[in-house]
Amino acid sequence: MIILVINCGSSSIKYQLLDMKNEEVYDLMAKGLVEKIGLPDSSLTHKPTGKTPVTISAAIPDHKVGMKLVMDALIDPEHGVLKSFEDIEAVGHRVVQGADFFSGSALVNDDVIKKIEICSDFAPLHNPSNLLGIHAVSQVLPKVPQVVVFDTAFHQTMLPYAYMYALPWEYYEKYRIRRYGAHGTSHEYVSRRGAKLAGLDIENSKIITCHLGNGSSITAIKDGKCVDTTMGFTPLEGMIMGTRCGNIDASIVPYIMKKENLTPDQMTEIMNKKSGFLGLSGKSSDLRDMNAAALEGDKRAKIVLKKLTYDTIKNVGGFVAELNGVDLIVFTAGIGENNARLRRRICENLSYLGVKLDEEANVNASGGGETIISAPDSSIKVAMIPTNEELAIARDTMRLVCETED
């Protein structure tokens, strides 16, 4: 079954085209990344299997334009891998927020789309982008089944004391205000891959996964199930991110609104799109730009880097206490997979737990495959596991479509 997997992030579109023989056997036909959407240096990197990769620099102001570039690349006469869109048998989408409507993946229909739209209020940077991908595919492939895999589904095992806010109960009943988390597909995938790599029984394990990218979250996983995570009602809660502020004193919101005469929508845009790396640095939402600026002595860029390190250390430490110990810490996603210096600085502050890093393994791991980066005598294993949300999505897509056909 040829499956196109689309993963729309807040500033990116990752995609893979896979020929799935079964859940474990598959051929990767092509993959690619549209990155820096909305920034001046946006681009598409398309990597067709067996052909020369191509990078297309273009103005990509939004996800709609990005999706058109992706679809065109797949059937391009030179670097495409399909004769026509009709070769695609199913499409799987990552959707960030499914609230408590969904505890698992679902086939796309009008009711599912309506619920995703309702949840857009909880994930304003993501769900609208996810819906753009769904609608774009519907126009090109109207008869092809589509499946949505929710970031929030993995976190549905959190207990009420972990997901409830100390607000009047009526707001939970009326407006579904509670913590939902995000990046669940990634956290579940890398925890299972990490456990296998580290020789752990996932059903009897304590794992902390650090998904560090333009959007970042950390999750505490016990016996393969999520018990807590840093993101909350929306992906705004938690750590500093590319354009999101993460945790702030709630009183700051009405204070700034009064001082600046802002509407709720304007304040929401500031917290989601103008804060984080971008807001603190005044330069960029991309950590690679922060690294370059810091090397040139930019003080605000240095604060961004230190704050990301600080937020990670603080949350990992809290989850160690919550789990009453940890067997494995996993780094993943764009920053977690590629920034050896950040991994080192975080692990240095976990030395009190007996964490010891293998410096050579850590440096060599960046941009590579699954790697244990802790030293042999480290009391806790540390791994770098490249996330593959697309494969996890393809597996769910194949399963649901096959069940429907049966």
Structure characterization notes:
By secondary structure, this protein is of the alpha/beta class. It has helices spanning 63-74, 110-118, 127-140, 160-163, 169-175, 184-198, 252-260, 264-273, 276-281, 287-295, 299-323, 333-338, 340-348, 359-365, 389-405, and strands at 2-8, 13-20, 26-35, 43-48, 54-57, 90-95, 106-107, 146-150, 206-211, 217-222, 225-229, 328-332, 371-372, 381-384. The chain has an 8-stranded mixed beta sheet, with helices on both faces. A hairpin with a 5-residue loop joins strand 4 (43-48) and strand 5 (54-57). Helix 1 runs parallel beside helix 3. The mean pLDDT is 93.
> Which range best describes the helical content: under 10%, 10-25%, 25-40%, 40-55%, 55-70% or over 70%?
25-40%
- What is the terminal-to-terminal distance? 15 Å
Number-wise, the strands total 14
| Spatial strand order of the main sheet | 5-4-3-2-1-6-8-7
Largest sheet: 8 strands, mixed
Shape: globular
Strand proportion: 15-25%
Given helix and strand content, the structural type is alpha/beta
Average pLDDT value? Answer: 93
Instruction: Note the run of SSEs as H and E.
Output: EEEEEHEEHHEHHHEEEHHHHHEHHHEEH
Number of helices: 15
Q: Which regions are unreliable across 5 or more consecutive residues at pLDDT < 50?
A: none
Radius of gyration: 21 Å
